[in-house]
Amino acid sequence: MNAQQTTTVASSTYQQGQNEFRDDIIMMVDDEPLMLEVLEVYLQEQGYRHFIAVNDSTKAVDTILRERPDCVFLDLNMPEVDGFEILERIRSTPEIQHLAAIVLTSDTDPETKLKALELGATDFLEKPIDSSELLLRLRNTLRAKAYQDQLTYYDALTRLPNRTFFLERLQASVEHARERHADLALLMVSIDRFQRVNDSLGPMAGDEILKHMAGRLRKLVNDAGVDAHKSQDYGDQVLARMGGDEFAIALPGRLTRSEVMDLAEEIREEVRKPFEYQGHQVFLTASLGMARYPHDAGEPGVLLKSAGAARELARQAGGDVLQQYTKEMTANADARRSLEAELHTAIKKHQLALHYQPQIDTSTGKMIGMEALVRWHHPRRGIIMPDQFIPLAEENGLIVEIDAWVLKYACTKTRAMHKAGFRDLNISVNVSARQFGNPDLVWSVADACSEAGLAPRFLTLEITESLVMEDTEAAAKMLRQLKDIGITVSIDDFGTGHSSLAYLKRFPIDELKIDRSFITEIPDNEDDAAIVKAVIAMAHTLDLRVVAEGAETQSQLDFLKLNHCHAAQGYVISRALPEREFIAFAMKNLGPGRREAATPSPGTKPPHATTESSGS
Ligand code: C2E
Ligand code: CA
Ligand code: CA
Q1: Rg of the chain over CA atoms, in angstroms?
Q2: CA-based torsion, 365, 371, 372, 378: positive or negative
Q3: Which residue among 193, 238, 504, 554 is least enclosed by CB atoms within 10 Å?
Q4: What does the alpha-carbon distance between residue 427 and residue 410 come to, in Å, rounded to a whole number?
Q5: Residue 385 CA: which ligand 1 atom is closest?
Q6: Strands (DSSP E) found in 344-480
Q7: Residue-by-residue DSSP string for 160-201
Q8: Which of 527, 519, 525, 591 is nearest to 558 (CA)?
Q9: How far is the CA of 156 from the centre of ligand 2 (A)?
């Protein structure tokens, strides 16, 4: 008889198709050929279809490593290599150390049994074997294993393969591709700003949406589904949930690059379809990153990192896009990581500073207020602009701390400026997406004002349009609370979202801030000019203040004035200025007549007029 033989049993007349474990691979190691035959017949009758008989015990461990059975029956008494030794080797080989092993022995001596159990036998059976007992123990063992596999390899929420499984499989798939000189593409998919779903609709909604998301992705991927861990085909596609809102898809061989990109496009479109949750329609987008073996990386770990870096870049670019990996990304990603680490201590080390950009009344040309814009004075890199670190801070949650600092600092400084004589100046502060979902915002705003001694009517919070549109109910509630405190609420970047007039009427807002992109080409660009005019007219109808940002030329300013835009901000008036320069600007613009306080409070001392750097 051959040392080993694999049999795929043809359909049995008895219980075919009934057995839940019919696809499991059962192996038996015994030096007695008759034993092997008897067991095979038993199993066949019960509907098991994959049986591996090993007669030569010296080959047992190699066969296990190659075939990866779900359960092995192990005879203890064998010549050359006995069952104890095989058991020991199984338990000390990482890839197979959890393999279910049922030992068979004719020795009823309790010491033998004890030794087998100590060596890690899953269960044991006495010879001669009682067939029904054997089947019972096998079924229980396989059930335990199936449960264990489920826990080990699958994500409980979405039922997709999990990170552990994906990493193991990716390793094997890359190996497989290497042997065949084949390609493999890796796609990473994450939902943009997913945290906001959790923040605004609650974690249950988040879970529900992740399940839907998994279902949608599954439709697009040809994977082995719930039994992925049993598939021995390393050319199979694999879809997994890597954790949080991140999914990964391995696409071995066959697909061309443009086919992968087509798939990415389908995914992108699929995610854009609204998700339903308890009557809410939730609109989401995804960021996708792609890297290829062997083109971009030769090792599974590097491949994963590369696709992740590409995905990260897609997200930073605003999401809803596929980014392919390029070599420069690795360097950028490293830089970003170190920046992120340093941001943690930036506040404590007093590295954040506020610059102030003047806002004027278009009809008089006089300054009426300023927008606080944060900067990071990095000890080595110099001044870092908010676009470089606010998105980072939003992601890791530091934004809460940063915005709280900005709010407090801005209120304190504004109060000091009032005292220094620049009375009635208004301060506008940006509120990040993440903050807006935070119910504590109302308290911290109230606190900031009262601690600074600043009347809330001098404070404007700038909130981006898309934020308000996202969760209208919660938004309306929060806006009302903010308004109750007495502060002004402004819709920032207005025009870039999808607001309709009808929508806006429902919100207790005070001000629209027309986005810079509409101002840049007026008055020459007729479309933009028409939009700006319409927005201004609409604001007047709704009794809202209207501010234009990003005015860079005198003709833009003239246009805004002519069309009765209340206020304007932009380089033509001044850039955002550090405190001392800002005060110099204020003195020049408002004149000393507006300065009433005898002694300016600390930190607001006017500098020499020569340091002024305003554009006007
Ligand atoms: P934003 O709220 O739209 O701020 C206006 C941005 O446009 C500022 O860039 C400002 O310097 C720039 N700007 C002003 N006038 C002109 C102009 O005439 N032409 C051009 N080309 N640009 C002009 P900055 O300071 O880099 O800020 C970028 C963004 O960072 C802000 O956009 C805001 O979304 C965010 N940000 C800034 N400070 C804070 C903060 O304290 N907290 C939060 N959460 N976000 C902030
Ligand atoms: Ca702003
Ligand atoms: Ca803006």
Answers
A1: 34
A2: negative
A3: 554
A4: 7
A5: 26
A6: 352-361, 367-378, 382-384, 426-431, 459-464
A7: SB-HHHHHHHHHHHHHHHHHHT--EEEEEEEETTTHHHHHHH
A8: 519
A9: 42
Residue 406 alpha carbon, nearest atom of ligand 1: 41
Q: Residue 429: CB partners within 8 Å, gap ≥ 6?
A: 371, 372, 403, 406, 407, 410, 459, 460, 461, 462
pLDDT in the model for residue 11: 37
CA of 454 to the centre of ligand 1 (A): 23
DSSP assignment letter at 10: P
pLDDT higher than 50, residue 350: yes
CB of 357 closer than 6 A to ligand 1?
yes
pLDDT bracket for residue 266 (50, 70, 90) = very high
Instruction: Give residue 325's pLDDT.
Output: 93
- Cα torsion at 499, 500, 506, 507 (round to 10°)? 30
120-158 pLDDT, tens digit per residue, is 999 988 888 888 888 899 999 999 888 888 888 999 999
Any idea which architecture 163-326 has in CATH?
Answer: 2-Layer Sandwich (3.30)
Residue with CA at minimum distance from ligand 1 atom 3: 493
Distance 577 CA to ligand 1 centre (A): 12
pLDDT in tens, 489-536: 999 988 876 656 666 777 888 999 999 999 999 999 999 999 999 999
Tokens encoding 497: 């979202």
What topology is assigned to 3-153 in CATH?
A: Rossmann fold (3.40.50)
Give the amino acid at 422.
F
Distance from CA of residue 63 to its chain's centroid?
42
Report the CATH superfamily, name and number, of domain 359-374+399-590: EAL domain (3.20.20.450)
Cβ count near 251 (within 10 Å): 24
Pocket lining: 161 vs ligand 1, CB cutoff 6 Å: no
Instruction: Read off the pLDDT of each residue in 108-129 and give the average, rounded to a whole number.
Output: 86
Q: Are 461 and 492 in contact (CB under 8 A)?
A: no
Beta carbons of 47 and 64 less than 8 angstroms apart? no
Q: Which amino acid is at 345?
A: T
Number of H-type helices and E-type strands within the chain: 22, 23
Q: Which residue of 430, 435, 461 sits with most ligand 1 atoms within 8 Å of its CB, as the best mutation to test the pocket? A: 430
